[in-house]
Write a structure and sequence with these properties.
about 500 residues, mainly beta, Immunoglobulin-like, 5 domains, rod-shaped
């Protein structure tokens, strides 16, 4: 029987069985040693995940990552989802929500001997992003106006908000203050924006409470439309009762055109004036009730419909004088006097100016010739002539306060002609002197002609006492004989005008 001696020698982790006298050898290759096991990873939806393992073995190791999506572990391969499937680091660039609870492990194989060992299992947890159901949209605001951006988002456990602005240098977080409030709410409010904010972009970062997963909303632009610039405001004005008044505004805008709307405050607040849509407001025939009315103009731009309100202006309406007694028509005989009177009053007093209309329009009268009292309440015409028959007179009464004129009613002047002076005969002889013999009947005075129905009265020259009366016949008339003395004949027309023949 042959004896076999067996020697066991362990060198560098290899177990070598050597038979110096035989050809049979058994070798045991060691397993890789895992020094760092993969650990669970939790990422936000669409975020990047990574699993890492460290292992060593004499001669080196190889790696193969595996995934279990519910149907058992299978090898991963590099592609859109995975990178590093055969390295110690498995990268997932964008982990979708469907990958939540996927499990991963790595098979580590020694290069020498092809011995493998499997790592522990690591689980991938995907925290979902918030769902934005209402995105912020472009906001239009007028210069110095207010506006807002709103977002609506949902997530299990709730969300937080952080608004950001891009003024041209990239998006940065906003803080409350200045233009902004509500920067950490679903509504960002902007107050008193100016043109420097025009074309700024805004977005909201919505972060889930569970997992702190952020998602950006769409960006929305802020458009700031310029206001009109009022360079000339309406100014307060005064006018007389029943007079006219005008208010003007001058405005411009850098883009588009302008429209105008005048408003009035009669004590109950500003309201639009129908039809007052130009840069000039014209008021015709104002009444005393409109005294102290306040006016302003709202100027609106065509771009953005932005309104600018002018300064206010006050309308002062000065009352007219009150004429309690108007001048009345007057009748005078040729050569006689005429009078016209007016009675008027006003707070602060009045002035007077009489006017005459001789047929070619009204003209002021001056203190000259037959006229006196032309700037008083009583106009006197001394020695009117028949040529003035039919003239009209009125008085312009002007208030001291406001210099508001009002015309009185007009009054007509009627000038009646004097009776004609006829040729006198004494005892049938033309002349004003007649004689008779003592004891005779006296002198008979006669007129060569007379005016029908006029009254002819022979009077004592000194006393004007009547002696005899004869009614005109349209032809010659004679008076009864009178004794020696001095006489005159007074002729009175049917209108009361008299002529003395002497």
């Amino acid at each position: 029987m042959k004896t076999i001696n067996i020697l066991f020698v362990l060198i560098a982790f290899f177990l070598v069985v050597t038979n110096v006298n035989a050809q049979l050898v058994a070798v045991e290759n060691p397993l890789p040693t895992i020094t760092v096991q993969p650990v669970d990873d939790e990422v936000c939806e669409n975020g990047a995940a990574v699993f890492i393992i460290n292992a060593n073995c004499v001669g080196g190791v190889t790696y193969q990552w595996q995934v279990d999506n519910g149907g058992g572990f299978v090898n991963t391969s590099d592609g859109p989802t995975y990178a590093g499937s055969m390295t110690n680091t498995l990268n997932i660039a964008s982990a979708g929500i469907s990958m939540d609870a996927y499990q991963y492990q790595c098979i580590v194989t020694s290069v020498t001997g092809g011995c493998d060992i499997t790592s522990v299992i690591a689980t991938l947890t995907i925290d979902p992003l918030a769902t934005i159901t209402l995105q912020p949209i472009t906001a239009n605001a007028c210069e110095n106006g207010n506006t807002s951006f709103t977002i609506t988002a949902l997530a299990v456990g709730g969300v937080t908000y952080q608004w950001q602005v891009d003024d041209g240098g990239g998006f940065v977080n906003l803080a409350n203050g200045g233009y902004y409030s509500g920067v950490a709410t679903n509504t960002l409010s902007l107050t008193s924006v100016d043109m420097s904010l025009d074309n700024y972009d805004y977005l909201c970062v919505v972060t889930t409470t569970i997992g702190s997963c952020p998602i950006n909303s769409n960006s929305a632009e802020l458009i700031v439309n310029p206001l009109a610039v009022v360079s000339v405001d309406p100014v307060s004005t005064s006018t007389c009762e029943n007079g006219d008044a005008t208010f003007n505004v001058t405005a411009s805008v850098s883009a588009g055109s302008l429209t105008y709307q005048w408003q009035v405050d009669d004590g109950g607040g500003m309201v639009n004036i129908t039809g007052a849509t130009s840069s000039t407001l014209f008021l015709s025939g104002v009444t005393s009730a409109m005294d102290n009315y306040i006016y302003q103009c709202v100027v609106t731009t065509s771009v953005g419909s932005c309104t600018t309100t002018s300064a206010t202006a006050i309308l002062t309406v000065n009352p007219l004088a009150t004429i309690t007694i108007h001048p009345a028509a007057d009748v005078a005989c040729d050569g006689a006097n005429a009078n016209f009177d007016v009675t008027a009053s006003a707070v602060g007093g009045v002035t007077y100016q009489w006017q005459q209309n001789s047929g070619s329009g009204w003209a002021n009268l001056a203190e000259a010739g037959i006229y006196s009292g032309t700037t008083t309440a009583n106009l006197v015409l001394t020695g009117v002539t028949y040529s003035m028959n039919g003239y009209s007179y009125r008085c312009v009464v002007t208030t001291t306060i406001g210099s508001c004129p009002i015309n009185s009613n007009s009054a007509s002047l009627t000038v009646n002609p004097l009776p004609l002076s006829q040729t006198v005969k004494a005892n049938g002889i033309t002349g004003t002197t007649g004689s008779y013999c003592q004891g005779g009947a006296g002198v008979i005075f006669s007129l060569t002609s007379s005016q029908n129905t006029f009254d002819y009265e022979l009077q004592d020259f000194a006393t004007s006492n009547p002696i005899s009366n004869v009614t005109g016949t349209g032809s010659s008339i004679a008076f009864p004989a009178v004794p020696a003395g001095f006489y005159k004949i007074e002729v009175t027309s049917g209108l009361g005008c008299t002529t003395v023949i002497q």
